[in-house]
Amino acid sequence: MAVSTTAGPSASASELGSLFTTALLTLFIMVAGIVVSVAFAAGAYFLISLVLPAYKLIGAVAVMVLGVAACFGYFWGSNRILDTIYPASGANIAANLTKANAIRPWLFLGPAIVILTLYLVYPVINSIWLSFHGPTGQAWVGTSNYEWLAADDGFRESMRNNILWLIVVPAAATFFGLIAAALTDRIAWGNIAKSLIFMPMAISFVGASVIWKFIYDYRPPGTEQIGVLNAIVTSMGGEPQAWLTIPLWNNFFLMVVLIWIQTGFAMVILSAALRGIPEETIEAAIIDGASPFQIFYKIKVPQIWGTIAVVWTTITILVLKIFDIVLTMTNGQWGTQVLANYMFDWMFRGLDFGRASTIALIIMIMVVPIMIWNIREARKDMK
Amino acid sequence: MSTAVGKRPALVWAVNLTVLLLVVIWTVPTFGILISSLRDKDQIAVSGWWTALFPSEQNIVARTAPPADAVEEDGRWVLRGNVFEGGSGRISAFGVSIQRPSEFEPGTQAEMRGGGTLTVDKNGDYVLAFEEQPEGRRGERIFVTSLEPPKFTLDNYRTVLFSEGIGQSFINTLTVTIPATVIPILIAAYAAYALSWMQFPGRALLLATVVGLLVVPLQMSLIPLLRLYNDVGIGKSYIGIWLAHTGFGLPLAIYLLRNYIAGLPREIIESARVDGASDFEIFRKIVLPLSFPALASFAIFQFLWVWNDLLVATVFLGNNEEQLVMTGRLRELLGSRGGNWEILTASAFVAIVVPIIVFFALQRYLVRGLLAGSVKGG
Question: Where are the transmembrane segments (chain B) (predicted)?
Answer without folding.
Answer: 12-35, 170-193, 205-226, 238-257, 286-307, 343-362
